[in-house]
Amino acid sequence: MFEDNDDRHYTVVHNDEEQYSLWPADRALPPGWTSVGVAGTKTACLEHIRTVWTDMRPKSLREFR
Question: What superkingdom does the record give (predicted)?
Answer without folding.
Answer: Bacteria
